[in-house]
Structure formats: C-alpha cells, structure tokens
C-alpha cells in the first residue's frame, strides 16, 4: 500500500509522520467509497437500518461522509476535536429519532462507522514498522472523536425524544379534553392523533372509558406512603398511565392521559376482544403495579359506540369508583348486571322496605355460613328446578326441599312464586351490598361473585389486595 513512497532517508519520527499523512490522504481520496462500505455494513449488522428505504440510506451515507471528512480534518491538522466540528450531527440525530430508529441502533451505527474507518486505517498502514506506528498514533484521536460525536448525537437524539414525548402528551391531553367536552376533531393534527388511537369521528368500534386514581399505600402493606405535596405521586401516575396504555394489543395506540389527579384511558376493543378480556387485563395491570408500590382504584364504564358518548362513559367510570374500599380495587360495569348495579346504588330506604322477617333470616344465615342464601340463588339459577339446584349445591334433593320449607316458614315467601322469589333475591342483593359491621357504601361491591359451594359473595367486581 506504500505506492512507491520511501521513508528510508527519514528519521523514525519523520517516517511515522509521513506514513500517517499518507494513510489519511489515501482515505480522503477514497472517502465516498468508504462511506458506502460503512452504510452497507450498517445494513448488514443492524436490522432496523436494513428495513429503511433508499432515501434513509442516502441520508445515512451523507452523514457518514461528513463525519469522515470532519474526522480527517481533525487528524490532518493534528488538533483536538471540538463541538463545532460535529455540530451537524444534531439534525441528523433528530431525523433518526423521527424515523423511529432506537437509540441503541443509532449508537450501534456510530460504532460500525468507526470500525469501518479504523479497518481502512489498518489496511493502508501496510506491514512496515512506520506504518504500524502511524496507525497506532491515530487510535487515540479517533477514539476521542468517536466518543464526543456519539455523546453529542445521543444527547441530541434524547432531546428530540423528550420534545416529541411532551408534544404527544399535550396532543393526547387536548384530544381527551375535546372528547370530554362533547366535541370531535375534524381536521389537522388533532384528527390525525384521534385516528392513530382508533377514535376518528366516523369510527364504529366499541370502546370504554377507564379512570384510575392513585391511592396512598395501605399501612404496612407496600412500603412508604405516596409522597405528599402539590406533585403528590406524579411519577407513579405517569408510570400507571403508561402501563394502562400498553394493555391492549389491537394494533392501535390506546389514548391514556394523566388528567389532574386521575388517569383517563379510552381503549378501543379490537376484533375478538370483549369487555371481559379487557377487565381481566386491567386487573392484571393493577396487580402488577402493586409490586411497584403503586396502588390504584380503577373504574370502568359500560361499552359504548362512537366518541360522542365518551362524556357519558366518563361519568359512569367516575361514579363506580365510590363503591371501592379504601385499599382500592377495580369497579367494572361490564362485569355486573343491571340488577346488581341497582342493588349497589340502593340507599337505606330500599333496605327499610325489605320485610323484617327476610332481613332477620339473611343475617342469621350469614352468621351460620349462608347455606339458605346459597339455596335461594341456586334455585333461581336453575329456573326453579329443585333437582338441578340440589346438584349444583352438591346436596340431596330432599335436603334442598327441606331448606325451601324452612325459608317459607321463616319469611312467608314461597320460592315457587316469581314475586316472592324476586323479593328474596332483591333482599339478598341489598343485604350483601352492605356487609354487617359497616356503615359505608365503599363495601357494597361484595355482592357480585358467587362462591360455587356456599353461594356467598367475595368481590369479582373489585379485588383489592
């Protein structure tokens, strides 16, 4: 690679300097070809770069060539690289971030570019001692250049990502406020954001509204309480907001926003995804966040179609939060029936309307394990078929018959009469919605899940921990 150049008449230091100048001059002459080789290496080693289009690759090649020229200028002038030498990397870094290139891939591309340049230095150094020494003299300044350039580019990349994230948060918050005010985006950036979330004005997919509120940690349960102050739990809210946004895999980004002291999400149910599956996923998110000492109370609205009903669904989700206990949980309207909801909303007047004989029986039965209550429920679920009810309860039909007679004797209600059976079911729902020893509506969610053996209720509607 010496091209006939001789260093025999030079001192060792002069020979190394001459070899160094020769190596750099040859690289400068072949700079465009070397930049192309670097881009080919990036495409071969980095899948994210290989997946991009030709315009992207042309931009990368231009940037590599600019870096090589800047690097050669610093080396030929034998000076320290300065920030002004690499100022051009800022705009390129922002373009990579905008193109969706991960920071790790972007920095990896810097490494590949540096490796191609260094391999070219080694190749051109040849086998002479002076050539080897010249290559070694270039190693330290090349490392300084690469360190400064990659750090500068990474900082610019992160600045753009932070800007883009802040802009996306603002756009999402503005879109949510538009929906909650009863409006709908019609054009421009806000319409594009709505479409990205599957919430275009003409979209007909079913959706729900989810509200989550951050709670202090229960004493002795998860560690320290949520920090006090005007920005109480801000980090925890944003972490929970991001977790909720990742819940659905329907191909759409879920609109999830920290709004004042609450998190509001508007998930769109994709094909094959029902509200029950959604509630299960939310429950899993809540339980996972408990491991991070983030305690949430979550309310889920009924399923709606069309963004015009988002304000109504928002009020539904907020309303059911009042039923949750102090330790939080999830109150999901898709998980309950209208009958159960009415029982949860009932006031003391509704309870006073219940025949005292029924109230007395239910209180007594609960203290004894709830077998009569379970029998009433099983009989109703079996469409008044005594044998089927007995089979469900895993008891003999004669035992079931005996229980029905006891219930009739104590309450004056014949379970084979629809009106009497309804009276008993309503009384059970009202009684279970306010467990003994409590005077708060927060405990009413206990009336929504059957235990298959006893028929007692344990809270599928909310599952606090």
TrEMBL record:
Annotated RsbT co-antagonist protein RsbRD N-terminal domain residues: 32-170
Residue ranges, annotated region (Disordered): 437-465
One family from Pfam that matches here is: GGDEF_2
> Where does the record place Basic and acidic residues bias?
439-465
The CdaR GGDEF-like domain sits at: 192-322
Question: PucR C-terminal helix-turn-helix domain: which residues?
Answer: 372-429
> InterPro entries this protein is in?
CdaR-like_regulators, CdaR_GGDEF, PucR_C-HTH_dom, PucR_C-HTH_sf, RsbRD_N_dom
> Of which family is this protein a member?
Belongs to the CdaR family.
Its protein name is PucR C-terminal helix-turn-helix domain-containing protein
């Amino acid at each position: 690679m010496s091209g006939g150049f001789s260093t025999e008449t030079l001192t060792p230091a002069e020979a190394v300097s001459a070899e160094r100048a020769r190596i750099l001059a040859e690289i400068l002459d072949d700079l465009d070809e070397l930049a192309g080789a670097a881009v080919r290496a990036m495409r071969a080693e980095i899948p994210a770069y290989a997946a991009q289009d030709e315009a992207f690759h042309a931009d990368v090649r231009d940037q590599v060539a600019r870096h090589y020229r800047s690097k050669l200028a610093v080396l030929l002038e034998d000076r320290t690289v300065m920030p002004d030498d690499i100022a051009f990397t800022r705009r390129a870094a922002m373009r990579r971030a905008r193109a969706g290139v991960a920071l790790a891939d972007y920095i990896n591309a810097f490494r590949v570019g540096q490796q191609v340049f260094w391999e070219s230095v080694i190749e051109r150094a040849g086998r002479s001692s002076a050539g080897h020494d010249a290559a070694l003299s270039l190693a330290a300044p090349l490392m300084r250049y690469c360190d400064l350039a990659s750090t500068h580019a990474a900082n610019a990349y992160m600045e753009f990502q932070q800007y883009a994230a802040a802009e996306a948060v603002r756009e999402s918050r503005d879109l949510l406020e538009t929906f909650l005010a009863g409006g709908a985006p019609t054009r421009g950036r806000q319409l594009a954001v709505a479409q990205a979330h599957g919430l275009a004005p003409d979209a007909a997919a079913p959706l729900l509204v989810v509200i989550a509120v951050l709670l202090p940690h229960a004493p002795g349960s998860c560690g320290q309480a949520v920090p006090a102050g005007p920005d109480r739990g801000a980090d925890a809210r944003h972490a929970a907001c991001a977790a909720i946004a990742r819940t659905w895999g329907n191909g759409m980004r879920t609109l999830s926003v920290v709004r004042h002291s609450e998190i509001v999400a508007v998930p769109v149910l994709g094909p094959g995804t029902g509200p029950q599956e959604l509630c299960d996923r939310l429950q899993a998110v809540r339980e996972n966040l408990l491991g991070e000492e983030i305690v949430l109370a979550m309310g889920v609205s009924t399923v709606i179609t069309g963004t015009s009903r988002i304000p109504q669904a928002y009020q539904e989700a907020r309303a059911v939060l009042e039923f949750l206990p102090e330790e939080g949980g999830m109150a999901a309207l898709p998980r309950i029936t209208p009958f159960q909801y009415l029982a949860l909303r009932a006031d003391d007047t509704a309870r006073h309307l219940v025949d005292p004989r029924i109230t007395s029986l239910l209180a007594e039965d609960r203290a004894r394990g709830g077998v009569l209550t379970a029998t009433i429920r099983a009989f109703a679920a079996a469409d008044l078929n005594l044998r089927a009810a007995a089979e469900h309860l895993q008891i003999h039909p004669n035992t079931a018959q005996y229980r029905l007679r006891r219930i009739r004797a104590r309450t004056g209600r014949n379970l084979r009469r629809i009106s009497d059976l309804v009276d008993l079911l309503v009384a059970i729902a009202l009684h279970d919605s306010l467990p003994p020893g409590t005077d708060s509506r927060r405990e009413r969610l206990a009336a929504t899940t059957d235990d298959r053996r006893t028929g007692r209720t344990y809270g599928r509607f909310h599952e606090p921990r």
